[in-house]
Amino acid sequence: MPDPLLYVAAQGTATVAGAVFVLAIGWFWKPVSTARFQAAAVVGIAGGLGAGYYFLRLHVAWPPLNGLDRFLIIVLPAALCIELGTTFSRVPRSLAWLMRFTLAATMGRILVHDSVYVSGAEPEWSPMQAVVVLFTCSALIAVVWGLLVFLSVRSPASVSIPLALALTIQCTGISIMLAGYLQGGAAAFPLSAATVGTIGSLRLLTSSPNVHAPIGVCVVGLGSLLMIGRFFGGLSTEVALILLLAPLLCWGTELPQLRCRPGWVVGLLRLLLVAIPLAALLLQAKRKFDRETAPLLMQASESQCDGEMHRRGGQGLAAGSMPPILHDCTPRSLNNMSLNGRKKGAAMYPNCCRPRWFCQRQQVANRVTHNPFPRYGLLIQIPSASISTLRFRDTSSAIMVSNLS
């Protein structure tokens, strides 16, 4: 069952760790220069990612088994190493962009390696389809990457660009979770939080930090997570495109009426321009989840609970014990009476055909509806019989369901 408190704690850990790394480097590594600030930003994001993922306890296999493992072990470290290497003055700018575009061109193939799309006796993609799909993804990521870096050079309010990317990554994680991939969505939260902590610390150390490195890491992370959610989760192509292109709305502040505003006003406007479509997208994803996915999960949960009730009842009678205690699983408030030692206002269950343990689980499920991922925890109650009806595009999906069911 997804625990929102765990995700919040992991994000807080990643934010603090990223800020501490940047402030420590800025304090002890002097004299300070632009290249050293960029290196501090890369180290801060890497430290925040390490702390956040350690707190989340994400299961990463070696050698990598699925797209998420390859993202965490290959793609994300490669982006960090490239951005760290570009901070050295001896590295030409053309070579730096060549390494960035090479990563953007190869990350898609790395993520879908050994999946049903490109592997097996009958892969879902033909060689030409694979080339077209992966080239399109790489081209879009490269275009977004280049435009955001160019905007950071052109505009003085460059700090708002990685913050807008962090906001987009956060919404991407929630969307992937609502689309059915818990671990894939959770992997986005430390990246978003580490970016926020790093950028905040850089802003304390200098008034105009160079944000090329945070932009590069965030764009690679955003593109990878969207491909994971699209190819291995239930994320639709339209939603993935909106999430990828949403940070480009920062260019809206380059209009003549807005460009001459103070830097903090331009930054707030950029965040607002990006946040509005993301909020609408999340609202639509939430409604779609409640309309399509939640009833199926509830039905699967009830069928499993009914089978478990009969199994436990049979075991109890065979052992000579009493049948399970039955009571109503629909709570009704008691205003002037008590039952079995309960205080006033407790729940009364007089007419239930299910055992007490089922009703307690129903109460937990009802409380889950108040968190940002309503009723999604019922995914763990999918019976084993229904797993065979699902078709997994990635090993991680089957592992997730088999471990939780």
Describe the protein.
The chain is an all-alpha fold and 405 residues long. The chain is 67% helix and 1% strand. The protein has a two-stranded antiparallel sheet with strand order 1-2. Helix 3 (67-85) packs antiparallel against helix 9. The protein starts with a helix and ends with a helix. Residues 312-392 and 395-405 have low confidence and may be disordered.
Quickly describe the structure:
With 405 residues, the protein is mainly α.
* Residue share in helix: 55-70%
Helix/strand/pairing category: mainly alpha
- Strand content is under 5%
| Number of distinct helices | 15
Distance between the termini: 11 Å
Strand order of the largest sheet: 1-2
Biggest sheet architecture: 2 strands, antiparallel
Low-confidence stretches: 312-392, 395-405
How are the SSEs placed, and which strands pair?
Elements: H1 4-28, H2 34-56, H3 67-85, H4 93-111, H5 127-154, H6 160-178, H7 182-186, H8 188-205, H9 212-232, H10 237-245, H11 256-259, H12 263-318, E1 326-327, E2 354-355, H13 356-368, H14 384-387, H15 395-404
Antiparallel strand pairs: 1-2
What attributes characterize this protein structure?
2 strands; 15 helices; disordered C terminus; 405 residues; mainly alpha
